[in-house]
Every structure is written in structure tokens, then in C-alpha cells.
Amino acid sequence: MRKPYWREISSTWYLSSWPYRWFMVREMTSVFIGAYLVLLVMWLFRLAAGAQSFEQMLVAMRSPLSVVFHAIVLAAALYHSITWFNLTPKVMPVRIGEERLPDPLVAIGMGYLPWVVLSALVVWGVLR
Amino acid sequence: MKRSGTRSNEAFWWSLFSAGGVMSALFVPVLIVLTGFVLPFAGDPAASYHRVAHALSFWVVRIVLLGIVTLSFFHCAHRIRHVLPTVGLRITPGLLAVLCYGGAFAGSVATFAALVRL
Predict the structure, then answer these.
(1) Distance CA A128, CA B27 (A)
(2) Among partner residues A6, A118, A127, which is closest to B27 by beta-carbon distance?
(3) Looking at the domain covering B11-117, what would its CATH class be?
(4) What would the pLDDT profile of B56-107 be if each residue is shown by its tens digit?
(5) What is the number of CB-based contacts under 8 A between chain A and chain B?
(6) Among B95, B76, B50, CA closest to A41
(7) CB within 8 Å: A44 and B115
(8) Full set of structural domains in chain A with CATH
(9) Of A57, A63, A76, B96, which has the fewest Cβ atoms less than 10 A away?
(10) Mind telling me how many Å the CA of B58 is from chain A's nearest CA?
């Protein structure tokens, strides 16, 4: 196999302007969401291990470290959600006949509205 | 360089990325609020345990949660795979793909293992 070609690229190119910075923030949300998912899997294992194990984890998660971690991860997740819903009409334009539905309408109908409804459903399902 | 006629499997990974992007956009924020803020501070931990155990006692809930977590893992893997080379990581693309999607696969298997034990 030939040696792969690496295009010369500065490792800080995305710091040069705001659109690039926000692009990198959006891509980096995946690292935070991934970290949260790993914690969620551990949380599920503690749940499977029984009441005592799970309750210990709940109490441990009152620590300031956990709260700060979840605040950061929540900010990342919200940024992902908002950018994802706003991009939906650009990636999947909805047409009725010849007319293209306005982007905000598609973002609300296929993004924000289901988001609110499903979030409420999850909260109701767990806390009822 | 890909020879013409070589099939790309990029479309497959992109479809997982897209489905995972939808799933994590819809469900991850509320999951973070519940597991990170509400349940730890909602008074009696025993009551929280029973609430969560009851919600996850339904198989349909477990299957949906497995779908959310699995697709979200693959979404993250895809983004990380494509962003790391742009910030200067020099790793063979094939190896990077194996590491990223392999990690997502491992996370999905772990989620499955936890959910069947409940």
C-alpha cells in the first residue's frame, strides 16, 4: 500500500472565524453526548444490580462534580438538538406539490414539536 | 484513492449517523435532565428506584431505549471519525473507522447486556 497522503492543515483552523468555531462546537457535542451515553450505560448496570446499588449511585450523583458534568453535557445536547432541528428543513425539504414549505414550519413540525411532546412523554413515563 | 466500481459503505454509516442524530436530538436532553438532575435530587432514592424499575419493566420501553442509545452511539462515532482528521489527527482512515464504530458497537452491546438483566 502506498503511504497515505496527508493534506497540510493547521490543527487550529477552526479558531479563525465564528462560523468555523460554531461548526467545531457542533461537532464536539458528540464527544460530550458520547461521554453521557457511557455514564447512562453504567447507570443501567447499577439499576440491573438491584435497589441498593442503584440508590448508592443516585446519592453519589448529588456530588457537585456530577452536577457540573451534567450541566456541560446538557448544554452540548441542547446545542446538538437545536442545530439538528434547524438543519432538518435544509437536508429534507418538504414539498407540497410545487410549493416548498417554509423552513421554520418544517423545523417546528419535524423537530421542536415532537421534541417537546416526546420529552413530556418520557418525564411522565418515569415520574408518574 | 478509490477505484471506480469500488463500493463505498459511507451511505450505510451516514444512515446510522442521521437516525442517531434524530434520536439523540429528541431524547438525550430529557434523559440528562432526568438522570442527572431530577432523580438524584428527588427526595427518597428508594422511590426513584421503583419509578425507574417500573418504567423499564415494560419490554417496549427497553427496546426503544436500546434503539435510542445504540443509534446515538453510532451518531457520535460518525462525527468523531470525521472531525478528528480535520484537527490534525493522522491515523489511517480504516483504523479510525474501526475504532469509532467498534466503540459504538461495544457501547451498544453493553446497553443490551444491561437491559436484558433488568
Answers:
(1) 18
(2) A118
(3) mainly alpha
(4) 999 999 999 999 999 999 999 999 999 998 887 888 888 999 999 999 999 9
(5) 155
(6) B76
(7) yes
(8) 18-92 (1.20.1300.10)
(9) A63
(10) 11
